[in-house]
Specification:
The complex is a heterotrimer.
Chain A lengths: L2 E12 L2 E12 L3 E5 L6 H8 L7 E6 L2 E2 L5 H6 L2 E4 L11 H5 L6 E2 L4 E2 L1 H14 L15 H14 L4 E5 L7 H16 L3 E5 L3 H7 L2 E6 L2 E7 L5 H9 L17 E9 L6 E6 L3 E6 L5 H8 L7 E6 L2 E3 L4 H6 L2 E4 L3 H5 L6 H6 L7 E2 L2 E2 L1 H14 L16 H13 L5 E5 L7 H16 L3 E5 L3 H7 L2 E6 L2 E7 L5 H8 L10
Parallel strand pairs in A: 3-10, 3-11, 6-9, 9-10, 15-22, 15-23, 18-21, 21-22
Antiparallel strand pairs in A: 1-2, 1-4, 4-5, 7-8, 11-12, 13-14, 13-16, 16-17, 19-20, 23-24
Helix pairs in contact in A: 8-17
Chain B lengths: L2 H8 L1 H23 L6 H26 L7 H17 L4 H24 L5 H19 L5 E2 L7 H4 L1 E2 L3 E2 H19 L1 H11 L1 H6 L4 H26 L2 E2 L7 H11 L11 H20 L4 H26 L1
Antiparallel strand pairs in B: 1-4, 2-3
Chain C lengths: L1 H24 L11 E4 L3 H6 L17 E5 L6 H17 L2 E5 L7 H13 L4 E4 L8 H9 L4 E4 L11 E3 L2 H15 L4 E8 L4 H17 L3 E9 L3 H14 L3 E6 L2 H13 L7 E5 L3 H9 L4 E5 L1 H16 L7 E3 L2 E5 L6 H7 L5
Parallel strand pairs in C: 2-3, 2-4, 4-5, 5-6, 6-12, 7-8, 7-9, 9-10, 10-11
Antiparallel strand pairs in C: 1-3, 11-13
The chains are: A alpha/beta, B mainly alpha, C alpha/beta.
């Protein structure tokens, strides 16, 4: 049996989340094995177990037939498994050779000095063998993204890896560079290296993958030869769950268009636009890196734009920074509520009042009584579980923290509210409460924009769904038209028009 | 939730101030045993007088530290504003007008610091360090390194007059400014927003708070406080001394940190700073009375500061 | 926001500029921007046009190429300004070129060393140093000698045989003068304290010890309570003075050994209404300390003769360069200023020296 790697029944649990349940996976020498699945399917957790970053709770790993228990990434490397991440692990101020041989530099003079000449020579040989036109003495910061990726691969090869894991390797490459990468991959395969290739770009996978494994919700769904499956089948395997009934009813008929963003363009956005009506929930779907957060941040004035216009209630508005946005009654609950949303070491009441303090003040002096009333009201209305308004926000659960943030924007009677991953890191019970709150806000007339990476959430909550991919809007679906397959294919930017299965 | 954890979560600020007050009382007990003159009214007033400089500059630093930044230029600013005050009087301005203009100059210095930190995006440490050097050089340059004598006999009353014959005016300034600063910090919108910015600048920004305005506010305040200290000193010695107050930014920071202001930002209080400054003042005075040389005083002060910063670190580790 | 910002910035910059103009115009036209170095170069024409009466070496054309580098301990304060005035006057009279450069604070040994090293590289012919640190200045003095440049000291000394000679105030004698004055004023009775600046300096210790010894020998009934050293900062000295008085309620007299400590003691005495009740003998006669004499807060002030010191230093430096015979030591002496002679021409020349 030439199974290089065997993953048998691996499970892994994190507090509150079962990331992997009894996953099986196998890898043969010399093959390119695609690993596909939605965000949260468990792909990266599995890879982290293979590379020694996490320890599995159950199951076993066999490498070349022998038990394999990686304790650390270095251990994994020494055993021939390397991973190339999306964010490169290179040191910009050092040269190509220095990076490739980092911590393994050839020495001279009683092991005290680094043998630069030898290092550069061997690097040159390596680069030549990969047909790369990069110089060993170039500094990393001078290289293009594609070249950096090549260096990463070369680095993995120096470590004499048998298994190479590539995570979205082509996301920053041009067509030419992708082909170059593929030719290197093919060469490596001929030498017997096995590649685990994680990607959502189906067409690319068609070109390069030998076999494919689909994961969903932490489980292994299916493994097949690429030649034996079709893309639509794969997609349906990726999403194939029924949407359970965990979303509150929505009976609101949206009103007129109250807000428009037209032609927003910057480094990450390519001329994107949206419209949203009062009482409507507009979902924005897409894969990681699609540009959804960048879109809403641009709308909110948190990032600069090179072009674009915002129109509210029919008149153009200027939003150059969040101060303007808030003034125009826009609200934004960021994706990372701990990093960008809450003042973690301050109290609940401070956080709730953060955006609206001046409305409870005369001549700049705060009216304590009014503030207390408002805070109490919000705590009650939103059912925020906290021992007191003076509790430090850090000690609240995720769901209650999110409610605090919602409370903050409620104080401002916001008309356009942007939720970026509103239920991330929140348990099921609290999620339902948040959904109800969103519906209430919509019912009261607010226009809601909701970014979510959870398919069921998008489908369950949105009246309309905008799909983005790589900085562009690739599709729009109404509630009735939307299916998981359609969304996913738009998110992967496939031109294929799928009919319902 | 149990009562003990309730206590832990709720009154952190109060707990911190309590620690400082207790420390102060302990010090005072120790020194009153060591020297019979310590508790005399006159001596306590002297402590107040000597503490006022550190305390008032400490108010400025408290604001800046809570906002998550730092101001190293206050020592030089004290000297510079003192010199400017003296020069303005020498140039013929009436003392009251000179005082007002000096306060404006202090505010201007603060404003320039803020510009460096906001518009020019310089790290506060570097920006205010540069200001420290520039202001000191400026003070020495325009006076040709000589003290500038203030020939107005009544000017020294600003610092030397005693209310009811007992309380030195600088102590009154210290308390009055303390009330004002505390009010600004706790009861106004802008003061509260300082905490928000210091705790999480990005979150504050995304809440619609103008971080820019807050930074200007705290730096201008710090500059004005430094100029108040400069005027008090100039009045006390009836001259503008270009070389004075070297290193006083360290005392101001120490007072604030001992009093519970965190160097990370987002936490702090004026009352704490007052007690912090008093601890430093009592320490210096007590050791003076015991005839212990200033070298040991510096050592003792240093130990106190290290201790206070360590406790601050423990507090922050307990949190995040 | 941008327009508003730019406008207010401009407005405030204009204020600052105006104020600094006003400030700069007050002191007598400053030539030194950083106050760190001044060069007094006199063209031979002006020296031949004036009758050079005091110089022993006749000014010649050749003298202007002689470069004497003078390094005071610092440049802050009346004292060094007077020294500089004297030095420049001598340079004018003798027709030599001098530089007068000191570090920003009198404790910045490193700063002084750097200035001296620069002078070596610029080809100084003679170097005159006021050592900051009697031991710490030894290496640089050796370096100067190694470069073949003769060295003299002034104002203070260094523990080395290399300097050819030194121009000083005998600080011990100055201390004795202060002790004598205090003893007289206190009529040989009572408790007294000494407030000194910067214990690390030999000259500071000499003044304090000299005063104390004199009093011990001549006024045995007087009781020495303490000699307290402060760090040189005026504000810290204020605290020290105040606390000494608090700790010794029956204190009858204080001797302070430099300008900063004198201002500190006088200020505290005035603040507490003790002027005259506690006798005060100070050190360094300047415009401000003169005021204390006239108001009766301070009874007497010991003063060096900084102008004379500066003058003599340059004169002796030239003599050393010319390889003339010089004494082992020169003492510019000290004087006592009090109410009786404060307005005399001699004392006024010290308090308000003719600055070029």
């Amino acid at each position: 049996m030439d199974e290089l790697l065997q993953v048998i029944g691996i499970s892994k649990e994190f507090p509150g989340v079962k990331a992997l349940s009894g996953v099986d996976f196998s890898l043969r020498a010399g093959e390119v094995h695609a690993l596909i699945g939605e965000n949260g399917a468990g792909k990266s957790t599995l890879m982290k177990i293979l590379t020694g970053i996490h320890k599995a709770d159950a199951g076993e790993l066999l490498l070349k037939g022998k038990p394999y228990l990686p304790q650390t990434p270095k251990y994994a490397q020494q055993n021939g498994i390397s991973m190339i991440y999306q964010e490169f692990n290179l040191i910009p101020d050092l040269t190509v050779a220095e990076n490739i041989y980092l911590s393994r530099e050839p020495r001279r003079f009683y092991n005290l000095l680094i043998d630069d000449a030898k290092m550069n020579r061997e690097t040159q040989a390596l680069l030549d063998s990969l047909n790369l036109q990069i110089k060993p003495t170039s500094k990393i910061y001078d290289l293009s993204v594609a070249e950096k990726q090549m260096v990463e691969i070369a680095k993995a090869l120096v470590e004499k890896s048998d298994i190479l894991i590539l995570d979205e390797p082509t996301s920053a490459l041009s067509e030419n560079e992708v082909q170059k990468l593929f030719s290197i991959i093919r060469m490596l395969c001929k030498q017997g290296v096995a590649i685990i290739y994680i990607s959502h770009r189906m067409e690319e996978l068609s070109e390069i993958a030998d076999r494919v494994t689909v994961m969903r919700d932490g489980r292994h769904i299916e493994t097949a030869n690429w030649a034996d499956v079709t893309i639509p089948k794969l997609i349906s395997l990726m999403v194939g769950r029924s949407i359970t009934d965990q979303y509150p009813e929505r009976n609101v008929a949206p009103g007129d268009v109250v807000f428009e963003a037209n032609g927003m363009t910057n480094q990450k956005l390519k001329n994107v636009s949206l419209q949203v009506r009062s009482g409507e929930v507009l979902g924005i779907a897409g894969l990681m890196g699609a540009g959804r957060t960048e879109f809403v941040r641009a709308i909110f004035g948190a990032d600069r734009i090179q072009a674009g216009q915002l129109i509210k209630n029919g008149s153009p508005i200027r939003v150059k920074n969040p101060v303007d946005a808030v003034r125009h009654k826009l609200a934004y609950l960021p994706e990372d509520r701990k990093k960008d949303g809450l003042m973690l070491d301050l109290e609940v009441d401070t956080n709730i009042l953060a955006a609206s303090l001046s409305s409870y003040a005369t001549w700049g002096v705060v009216n304590e009584k009014k503030c207390r009333e408002v805070v109490e009201e919000k705590i009650n209305d939103l059912a925020i579980k906290t021992p007191s308004p003076r509790q430090i926000v850090q000690y609240l659960s995720g769901g209650n923290q999110q409610k605090v943030l919602i409370g903050r924007w409620l104080c401002r009677d916001s008309e356009v509210i942007i939720f970026d991953e509103p239920t991330r890191g929140i348990d099921v019970g609290a999620k339902y409460e948040v959904y109800c709150l969103i519906n209430e806000l919509a019912a009261a007339g607010a226009a809601i924009i909701m970014i979510s990476s959870e398919m069921p959430e998008i489908l369950g909550m949105s009246d309309r769904i905008l799909v983005m991919c790589e900085g562009k809007v690739t599709g729009e679906l109404s509630r009735s038209e939307a299916t998981q397959e359609r969304i996913l294919s738009m998110a992967s930017n496939l031109a294929i028009n799928l009919s319902e299965n | 939730m149990s009562r003990s954890s309730l206590l832990k979560n709720m009154s952190n600020n109060t707990k911190q101030t309590m620690t400082v007050v207790i420390a102060l009382l302990v010090l005072m007990v120790v020194f009153s045993i060591a020297s019979p003159y310590f508790l005399q009214t006159n001596n306590l007033m002297t402590i107040g007088l000597q503490t006022s400089i550190t305390c008032i500059t400490g108010y400025g630093l408290t604001f800046v530290l809570i906002a998550g930044a730092v101001d190293l230029s206050v020592g030089s600013c004290i000297a510079f504003t003192g010199v400017m005050c003296a020069l303005l009087i020498q140039a013929g301005l009436s003392p009251s007008l000179a005082v007002v203009m000096t306060l404006l100059i202090g505010g201007l210095v603060g404003f320039l610091n803020a510009v460096m930190v906001t518009k020019m995006r310089m790290p506060p440490f570097i920006a205010t360090l540069g200001a420290l050097m520039a202001l000191r050089g400026l003070a020495l340059a325009i006076t040709e390194a000589k003290p500038v004598f203030i020939d107005v006999p009544n000017f020294k009353l600003l610092a030397q007059y005693r209310l009811f014959g007992v309380i030195p005016l600088p102590v009154i300034y210290m308390l009055a400014l303390g009330l004002l600063a505390s009010f600004l910090l706790r009861k106004t919108v802008i003061g509260r927003n300082v905490f928000a910015v210091g705790s999480n600048e990005e979150a504050a920004r995304l809440s619609g708070i103008s971080v820019f305005k807050i930074q200007i506010f705290v730096y201008v305040f710090s500059g004005v406080m430094a100029s108040v200290a400069g005027i008090i000193l100039a009045s006390r010695v009836t001259s503008g001394q270009p070389a004075i107050a070297s290193g006083y930014e360290a005392n101001a920071i120490a007072a604030a940190v001992i009093g519970g202001t965190s160097m990370r930002g987002g936490h702090g209080s004026i009352i704490g700073t007052i007690f912090g400054a008093l601890i430093l003042g009592v320490l210096m005075n007590g050791l003076n009375l015991m005839n212990i040389s200033q070298n040991w005083q510096m050592f003792a002060t240093g130990i106190v500061v290290i201790f206070a910063v360590y406790i601050d670190k423990l507090r922050s580790m307990q949190g995040v | 926001m941008k327009g508003y910002f730019a406008r207010s910035l401009t407005f405030l910059m204009v204020i600052l500029l105006t104020l600094s103009m006003a400030a700069c115009s007050s002191p007598s036209g400053s030539t030194a921007t950083a106050g760190q170095s001044t060069e007094a170069t006199q063209a031979p024409e002006s020296s031949t046009s004036e009758a050079a009466t005091e110089a022993t070496a006749a000014p010649t054309e050749a003298n202007k190429d002689i470069y004497i580098a003078v390094f005071p301990k610092g440049y802050v304060g009346d004292y060094w300004q007077s020294v500089e005035a004297g030095a420049k006057a001598a340079a004018a009279d003798l027709g030599v070129t001098i530089t007068f450069e000191g570090p920003e604070t009198e404790t910045d040994l490193d700063g002084q060393i750097k200035l001296i090293e620069n002078a070596i590289n610029k080809g100084a012919d003679v170097i005159a140093i006021a050592p900051l640190d009697s031991k710490g200045n030894i290496p640089i003095v050796e370096e100067v000698q190694a470069a073949g440049i003769p060295v003299i000291t002034f104002n203070s000394t260094v523990d080395s045989d290399i300097p050819v000679t030194g121009v000083e105030t005998d600080n011990w004698a100055a201390g004795e003068l202060g002790g004598q004055a205090l003893g007289d004023i206190m009529q040989g009775q009572g408790k007294y304290a000494i407030l000194g600046a910067i214990e690390a300096l030999q000259i500071s210790r000499d003044r304090c010890d000299g005063a104390q010894k004199y009093i011990e020998d001549h006024y045995p009934d007087m009781e020495h309570v303490t000699t307290f050293y402060s760090d040189g900062d005026l504000n810290t000295s204020l605290a020290a003075a105040a606390d000494i008085i608090t700790a010794n309620p029956d204190l009858a007299g204080i001797f302070s050994n430099n300008e900063t400590t004198t201002i500190a003691v006088a200020t505290v005495l005035e603040e507490r209404g003790l002027a005259g009740k506690i006798k005060h003998v100070g050190f360094d006669a300047t415009k401000q300390t003169e005021g204390y004499i006239k108001s009766g807060t301070t009874q007497a002030i010991v003063t060096q003769k900084p102008y004379d010191m500066g003058y003599l230093t340059v004169k002796i430096a030239l003599a050393v360069y010319m390889k003339e015979k010089v004494d082992a030591k020169y003492d510019t002496g000290c004087a006592l200023v009090d109410m009786s002679n404060v307005d005399s021409a001699e004392m006024q020349a010290i308090i308000n020296p003719p600055v070029n």
